[in-house]
Amino acid sequence: MNNKLLSLTIFLSFFVLSNITHAKSLADRNKVNQVNEYFMSQLVAGEFESAYALMTAYLGVDAQQFEERGKKAAQSMKQLQQNQGKPLSFALLKTQSIDEHFYKASYLLKYSAAAIIWELNYYQPDQGWRLVDISFNADINALFED
After folding, report:
1. Closest CA to 128 of 25, 58, 15
2. What radius of gyration, in Å, describes the C-alpha atoms of the chain?
3. What ranges do the domains of the chain cover?
4. What strands lie across the sheet with 130-137, from one edge to the other?
5. How far is CA 15 from the centre of its chain?
6. Collapsing DSSP states into helix, strand and coil, what is residue 31?
7. Is 30 left (phi over 0), alpha (psi -120 to 50) or beta?
8. What fold characterizes domain 2-138?
9. Contact of 109 with 46, CB cutoff 8 Å
């Protein structure tokens, strides 16, 4: 039974890794920050699909899943825009890293009566950063440390 489980795990790992796009990596954190700033400026402009399309060039995860999440995010942002209007601006809240392995940038996307937190996460397997996740939420309380 354990051998079947191990075989299945190896097969699924190979399948997932073989479906990961051959993305460009970003040479250093300055390049990551430049890409992030452009992504956020696209969101302010209301170009949600374009923003996600830009980021596919730097993926370190399955492109199809990322694109599906991007479509859902674009729908959510369009609904928010109908209620709140276009975003006013964005601001970098903080960056965090775990050595040279993981890097996270958190931004605030500002509306007249709302704010959305965007988090962009990168992983550096060897040399060069690759995007592994983009998420957003409205949990402003999570920004405050106890």
Report:
1. 25
2. 17
3. 2-138
4. 89-98, 102-110, 115-123, 130-137
5. 23
6. helix
7. alpha
8. Nuclear Transport Factor 2; Chain: A, (3.10.450)
9. no
Per-residue tokens: 58? 């730097």
Cα–Cα distance, 100 to 34 (Å, whole number): 18
Give per-residue pLDDT as tens, 69-122: 888 999 999 999 999 999 999 999 999 999 999 999 999 999 999 999 999 999
- Structure confidence by residue, pLDDT tens digits, 21-63: 457 899 999 999 999 999 999 999 999 999 999 999 999 888 8
Contact call for residues 52 and 67 (beta carbons, < 8 A) = yes
- As given in the structure block, the two tokens for residue 68 are 């599906």
| 8 Å CB contact between 19 and 94 | no
Place of tokens 């209301």: 46
Reference 57, options 117, 126, 109, 128; nearest CA is: 128
Q: How far apart are CA 146 and CA 137, in angstroms?
A: 19
* CA separation for the pair 91, 117 (Å, rounded): 10
Amino acid, single-letter form, for residue 110:
K
Q: Residue 111 phi/psi, 5° resolution?
A: -115, 170
